[in-house]
Design goal:
CATH architecture of the largest domain: 3-Layer(aba) Sandwich
Radius of gyration: 40 Å
Distance between the termini: 91 Å
Number of strands: 17
CATH class of the largest domain: Alpha Beta
Number of domains: 4
Structural class: alpha/beta
Shape: elongated
CATH topology of the largest domain: Rossmann fold
Number of helices: 21
Length: about 675
């Protein structure tokens, strides 16, 4: 346009008028050139019939070509160009054959030529603003990306964010066309793909909002400095990072029955490939949870708390991989119906913060006379399964299905963390029951496993990050504005400097956090026995066997060695005497390796179950009796039969995995 406008700085009115007239001169030059071409053509081909055929074909080809060439422009411009070309070429053909002054041709030229030129002048004027710039809101951007005919509406400009309403061509374009053009839009604007997203209007197939974030405010990692709301409620938002526009990245676990909020309780899937920052993201979420006073955490980590060790004292129940996790899964399953019954008896349709306090209200009393019951409150429960792929391989892909489907009404949130939430690892029923997801960088082929199609269509693209942008994520969860589902965020980074803060947080949770209510703790102990200890203000959670060993060590240290009086005079530093004949003669009868009788074998088997229970190993199978079978000359098939008998007697119960049995603690055995 600068070339057309030229330089307006010259002197005089003439120069100014020439400058303003330049954009409007080309159509008039085209009209004059057409008249001159008609006169010359008649002089050359006036008597040639072959020229008539050629001119006619050229006229048709020129008109059709103009229509096809204008395919990438707007519908109005395309039609205008085709009409102008068709009328001009038709007059030129007639003028060349019959003469420019024959019949009405001269009048048509004098009237039609200026009319067509003026129509193009009007078009140019409509595209210009008073300053001489183009009036198109997009400067031809939408035409470049294949959305010709679409129009921008109201535009909202914020710091580092532009939101523009977009209306597409009726009957020609849909919101799907915009989703497909997002990559081209990003290319035209020279921005990363994640910087351009589109939020379709759910009430229209051709309207929505285009969001452009020109500067990546997430490029600089932010180190974690501590939880955001120490001493608050788990019902308050959990701050796990920030969005690319600088706003906080929030997440809620419990629901809110307030009609103005209407948020449902949720489970969370944390998904991301190796190196995507999944560990730091989990730490962001877990530290926020442990800083609240009305929640307890049951945590499984097959990696034996490599990343989460500093926070372990603040957990109500922590379990390593294998059998410990099997017990925890069964404990969660047992706690769900017990908690649901308690909430129902106290007139709670879902868990709310009031349920975690002592029940002093008549509206939430379980007494039949309507007086306050004074029952202990029930804190919210987070059942977290870290590196869940390991657990799913051991227990089956539907290990969490029942929990995911039933836990939300019981004031329980399930958190599942794994690298690739594909359907060959996690059952479709489980995945469908987990409404929230924190999707970090992944393989582009795995995007559909992490995020809903609608979010991917809106511009979310975690596959573009891979492991190159640790902590970058998309969060889809109840309570979050749907327009932010496709907005990238980034979680805070945990370094060595964060370890002391995490340790202090764990000790704070130990002293000030909630303890398991009698209902939840009773359900856990009915499954796990001594394997569930809960957290105590003195020592935190430690396995019962470890406690016994520590107590024994303390007793030895305080009371001195227990020495037989007959050995009191023995000098421990003296050399041992030389061996004498008969020293190697057995004193007691040696084992003959005999096989115990049926009654004795059953008694030994019952003792073995008691030993497993005492050690806290509450889930067993024939493979756990391998050494025991060798010791007593019994076979593993014999153990399998005894386990079935124990099931009939109520001493063990079936688990979700074939061949694994859960020991019923002896105090509650049928």
């Amino acid at each position: 346009m600068e070339a057309q406008r030229g330089n307006s700085d010259g002197g005089g009115i003439g120069a100014y008028l020439l400058h303003r007239a330049k954009p409007h001169i080309p159509p008039w030059l085209a009209v004059g050139g057409t008249g001159l071409a008609g006169a010359l053509g008649h002089w050359r081909w006036g008597d040639s019939s072959a020229a008539g055929v050629g001119l006619t074909l050229a006229s048709v080809a020129l008109s059709g070509g103009a229509y096809m060439i204008g395919k990438t422009t707007s519908k109005q411009r395309r039609l205008h160009s085709a009409i102008t070309t068709g009328l001009g070429s038709a007059w030129l053909t007639a003028a060349c054959l019959a003469g420019p002054t024959a019949g009405p041709l001269d009048d048509l030229y004098l009237m039609g030529g200026p009319a067509l030129a003026l129509s193009w002048n009007v078009r140019v004027m409509m595209r210009q603003n008073p300053d001489g710039g183009t009036g198109s809101a997009d400067g031809g951007l939408l035409e470049k990306v294949g959305l010709a005919g679409a129009k921008f509406g109201a535009t909202k400009v914020e710091p580092n964010k532009v939101t523009a309403s977009l209306a597409l061509e009726p009957g020609e374009q849909t919101n799907d066309d915009v989703s497909k053009a997002l990559a081209r839009l990003a290319s035209a604007l020279d921005l990363p793909t994640s910087a351009v997203r589109y939020q379709a209007d759910p009430g229209s197939a051709r309207r929505g909002e285009l969001v452009i974030v020109p500067e990546d405010m997430l490029a600089q990692a932010v180190q974690w400095e501590g939880p955001s709301n120490v001493g608050g409620s788990i019902a308050d938002p959990l701050v796990i990072g920030r969005y690319d526009d600088g706003s906080p990245l929030l997440l809620w676990l419990p629901g809110d029955p307030d009609p103005e909020v209407g948020r449902n309780s949720t489970h969370v899937l944390v998904a991301g490939g190796t190196g995507s920052g999944k560990g730091d993201t989990a730490l962001n979420l877990l530290t926020e949870i442990l800083s609240r006073t009305d929640v307890i955490v049951w945590f499984s980590d097959p990696k034996e708390f490599q990343d989460f060790g500093p926070l372990r004292p603040g957990m109500d129940w922590s379990a390593g991989g294998g059998t410990d996790t099997e017990i925890l899964v069964e404990g969660v399953k047992a706690a769900i119906p017990a908690r649901t019954r308690w909430l129902g008896a106290h007139s709670y349709r879902q868990w709310v913060p009031e349920a975690a306090r002592e029940q002093t209200s008549t509206a939430h009393s379980c007494r039949s006379d309507g007086r306050p019951c004074g029952c202990a409150g029930m804190p919210f429960l987070v059942a977290w399964f870290e590196e869940a792929a390991n657990t799913l391989r051991n227990l089956g892909d539907d290990a969490f299905t029942g929990i995911a489907q039933e836990a939300r009404s019981a004031g329980v949130s399930l958190v599942v963390s794994l690298q690739r939430p594909s359907y060959d690892q996690m059952s479709t029923s489980t995945r469908a029951s987990i409404p929230s997801v924190i999707a970090l960088g992944c393989d582009p082929r795995d995007e559909g496993f992490s995020l809903p199609d609608a979010v991917l269509d809106a511009g979310a693209h975690p596959g573009a990050w891979g492991n190159r942008r640790p902590g970058y994520c998309y969060v889809v969860s109840p309570g979050i504005d749907e327009t932010k589902y496709a907005a990238p965020g980034r979680t805070s980074q945990f370094t060595v400097k964060a370890v002391p803060i995490m340790e202090m947080l764990a000790q704070w949770a130990l002293r000030n956090g909630a303890s398991a209510d009698p209902i939840t703790a009773g359900a856990a102990r009915s499954i796990a026995g001594t394997a569930y200890t809960g957290r105590t203000p003195d020592t935190g959670q430690r396995p019962a066997v470890a406690d016994a060993e520590d107590d024994m060590d303390d007793t030895t240290a305080d009371a001195g060695l227990n020495i037989d009086p007959e050995d009191a005079d023995i000098d421990p530093e003296a050399e041992l005497p030389a061996p004498e004949p008969g020293d190697d003669t057995p004193i007691f009868e040696q084992s003959t390796g005999r096989k115990p009788g049926p009654e004795e074998a059953r008694r030994l088997f019952a003792q073995a179950l008691e030993e497993f229970e005492h050690r806290g190993q509450m889930v067993v199978g024939p493979k756990d009796f391998y050494d025991w079978c060798d010791q007593h000359n019994l076979s593993r098939p014999w153990v399998s039969e005894r386990l079935k008998e124990a099931w009939k007697e109520g001493r063990v119960q079936e688990t979700s995995k074939t061949g694994r049995w859960r020991i019923v603690p002896s105090l509650t055995a049928a």
